[in-house]
Write a structure and sequence with these properties.
It is built from one helix and 13 strands, in the order αβββββββββββββ. By secondary structure, it is mainly β. The radius of gyration is 22 Å and the shape is globular. The relative contact order is 0.23.
């Protein structure tokens, strides 16, 4: 027995449903194809390794917290040559931290580039500095305030953005560091730094 013919309303809805489903697929594909890699699962330090004082680091409420003795936390999953690295960061009043890239794993302060995180520490080099290469001395972000820091390293050209504003655009004529790990800094006891939305993307 033949079924009842579909109403005109149903016929109009089917193309609309198809278009909406297609848009959803495109959106998911675009998100997957943009190349960004999440560096933190939001609940553990899997993939990360401290060079010393591992108890200075914890995963808490969807963030990575540095609080304690000097330590550097390395993301051991993959290294950076040409890459982007970004995170949302909050630093305590008087605190000091940094986001390292193209850096070597080892004891002490890492050998590599550092994008400084510092709103009010006695060290005058503030957030956004490419430490000791291109320094910033003005306070771009007050302490205890979330901000985004975004690093783009391609060849010897390095860009640092703070809250989407380019604050460093630097060419290292010596190409001092060309490859290495990403790392986070816990500078000293009394300083507290918090990171979330940690992402990296390799560049061609």
């Amino acid at each position: 027995m033949r079924g009842k013919p579909e109403s005109g309303k149903m016929m109009r809805m089917r193309p609309l449903a198809f278009v909406l489903a297609l848009m959803s697929i495109v959106a998911v594909t675009s998100a997957a194809d943009d190349g960004w890699v999440s560096m933190f699962d939001g609940k553990s330090l899997d993939g990360w390794k401290a060079n010393e004082h591992p108890d200075s680091w914890s995963a808490k409420d969807g963030t990575i917290v540095g609080d304690g003795e000097v330590s550097h936390l390395f993301w051991m999953t993959r290294q950076c040559s040409d890459c982007e690295f970004k995170a949302d960061v909050k630093i305590s009043d008087g605190g000091n931290s940094g986001m390292y890239f193209r850096t070597a794993f080892g004891p002490g302060f890492p050998k590599g580039y550092e994008a400084q995180v510092n709103s009010s520490h006695k060290d005058p080099k503030r957030t956004g500095s490419l430490y000791n290469f291109k320094n910033i001395y003005e306070q771009l972000v007050p302490p205890d305030t979330w901000f985004n820091q975004h690093i783009i390293a391609q060849g010897n050209h390095i860009i640092i953005k703070v809250n989407d504003k380019t604050v460093v655009d630097y060419t290292d004529e010596k190409s001092t560091y060309t490859n290495g790990y990403f790392a986070l800094q816990q500078h000293n006891k009394g300083s507290v730094v918090t990171f979330k939305n940690l992402m990296m993307r390799p560049l061609p």
